[in-house]
Structures are given as C-alpha cells and as structure tokens.
Amino acid sequence: MKKIILAIVLSLSLTSCANKQESPAPTPSETPSATERAVPATCEISDVISAFALVIPPAQYIPTEWKPAEGTDLYEAVNAGGIACSYGDQNAEVGGTVIWAMNKNDLWKARTLEWEKEGMVRVEIPSIDEMDAYRLPDGATSADGMPAWKVNLLIHGVWIQLGAAFIQSWDEATPIIRAAINATRVI
To answer: Which residues of 89-117 are buried (b: 16+ CB within 10 A; e: fewer)?
Structure first.
C-alpha cells in the first residue's frame, strides 16, 4: 500500500513538473513593457558601444565628468535620477552622447515645451514604436557652428536622448537608438 501511495505521489509530482511551461527570455528585437524598464546603472553597455562602432569604429565608452547647467536637458535628466554617457573615438574627437531618464513628474511634457522653443520638431522614428519624439531639423548647427543631430524619444516611461554631430541619417541613428532602448531593459 505504501508503495502504491509513493508511486502515485511521485507520478503526480513528475506530471506537474512536466506541465510547467517556462516563458522564453525576450529577444533583443522585442520591446520590453513599461514595468520591465529602468535607466541603465552604468555607461559601459556593450550593445550601445557596438552600435556606435557601426558608424565610428573603434568606438568606446568615454568617461565624462558632467557639470550640467541649470535648465539644460542634461541637468533635468541627471536631477531626475538619469544618466548621461558619451561614446565614440576620443582620439579623433568624434562621438555622441546618450541620456536616459525616467519620465517622472511629467518631465517629458516640460522638456517638450523647451524643445519646441529651440526649434525641435515632432517626428516619427522609422522602425521604432516610440510614444513621442522630437528632433532637431535637418541642417541644424550647434553654438560653435558645427552640424548638430539630436533626437529625444519617450518609450514606455523612459526619456532617451541621442545627440551626435556625426549622425547624418536615421539609418545611422536607428541602431544606436535601438541599443539605447534595449539598455533600459531590467534583467
């Protein structure tokens, strides 16, 4: 009798284990949900570095000591608990910066008012399912007269900004934007 009960219990245990289905880990092409998102804890993100390297090899993370001026995107992002990271080829003085911040206290809405004053325009980013995005218009220049390329996007509660003078098209920007989005995934 004990053997029969033991066999039934063992059989039920094995059956319940066999019926469990584990959900597969998301692939890099999937878009994580809002509850799976957070600002990266570090700038040393291999996917982002690799995406920059597609345009400016050999790209690397460039440690930068930030001293943001009040009212700037950098200031607002860092004060909201965000992070700013520069990548590129430091020897050639070519690179770009990615800013990540959570959209707390309607930060996005406040920044859009500033971006519109600066001449940024609302855009749809090709192949990206963002909630909202603003970009400098073609031909924009920075204060020193150099070409400027900057896009701000809001995706699942995270504000991401990519700024880089070397970018000339969405084709160059999109791999970096995708890597920046994927860097917000909580693992």
So the answer is: beeeeebbbbbbbbbeeebbeebbeebee
Can you tell me the distance from the alpha carbon of 176 to that of 170, in angstroms, rounded to the nearest whole number?
Answer: 10
8 A C-beta contact, residue 134 and residue 151 = yes
Q: What's the predicted TM-score (pTM) here? A: 0.79
Distance CA 63, CA 183 (A): 18
Position 68 scores a pLDDT of 94
The residues, any chain, with a CB within 8 Å of residue 186's CB and separated by 6 or more, are: 32, 36, 37, 38
Q: CA 92 to CA 6: how far, in whole Å? A: 72
CATH architecture of 31-182: 3-Layer(aba) Sandwich (3.40)
Model pLDDT, residue 78: 96
β-strand partners of 13? none
Given a cut of 90, whether residue 79 has pLDDT beyond it is yes
Q: Is the pLDDT of residue 130 over 70?
A: yes
Q: What is the mean pLDDT of residues 94-112?
A: 94
What count of other Cβ atoms lies within 10 Å of the Cβ of residue 56? 19
Q: Are 177 and 133 in contact (CB under 8 A)?
A: no
